[in-house]
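Worked example 3. Consider a protein that binds zinc ion.
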Amino acid sequence: MSKAAQPPRSEAEPSGVVSARDGAAQPPRSDGEPSGVVSARDGAAQPPRSDGEPSGVVSARDGAAQPPRSDGEPSGGRKARPLVDLALARCGVPHGFGVRGSVAPDRCGRPRQVHGAAVVSAEACRAPGPPPEGDAVVATAPGDVVGVVTADCVPILLAVGGGRAVAAIHAGWRGLVRGVVEAGVAELVRASAVAVTRVTAAIGPHIGPCCYEVDAPVLEALRARLGAEAMAHARPVRAGHAMLDLGALARLALRRAGVGEAAIGSDAALCTACDRERFHSYRRDGPGAGRLVHFVAIPERLDTASGEP
Ligand SMILES: [Zn+2]
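Given these inputs, the predicted complex is written out as structure tokens:
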């Protein structure tokens, strides 16, 4: 099914106590995360469900049918269409958040992910031999495509200056603690020589606060890195355990790195564990879980990019 999603070693992120409560009601979001509702015209994420039941709009045949994208690709192909985010689409940046069966372009450069904070270049990923270890990858040349894979962790795709440079980040709780988001943004800004105020970011599908229970050591590590504010995104459920909103923490880390709140999209920030029709989920499916592949590209011709962010 996911031919292109080759899980790197140690992709799994065991985190102590975790539950995958498929039928659990989604708690109200108080962190300003968007609802995920976008126009069908752009082919982006489906509206979130409030009951954890499989969405009725998903095709049973391929598990991930999406409306046609706005990039001129013909519809009706057999491959599942990745999700798009309006914040990046408005900048003219080609990208996709993976669903079951979707693939990235062949030339997509991906690092070997290790839940660290190292940032690598697209060039390093293209070089002969095994890909470099890293959890963020930055590209600066027209036509470059970079990506990461996930199966519950948070994928973040970024672009600056209408797509002059792009980056992909893989952020689980370990990556957040190690500063991978801040490191990725810093390298994107450095490599492109563009102000951080011109960075646009999009948060993709990851395990939601409805399904992600963590224990005290995880919470303590996050508090130590991101401060007390981070604990606003952890809802205690029993002694020493909380339901964690990883996406909100990724957003917090992006803001700390200088990215504007309004420049962070989350049209595709759906819960991987809740939606088995569309997403792989490590917590739900275990070590045999597939991986979602996410990618972002620099247009071949930058003048085709619209709307400088
Ligand atoms: Zn969920």
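Take a moment to read the result before moving on. Confidence is low (pLDDT under 50) at residues 1-12, 14-77, 304-309. Residues 115 and 175 are 5 Å apart (CA to CA).
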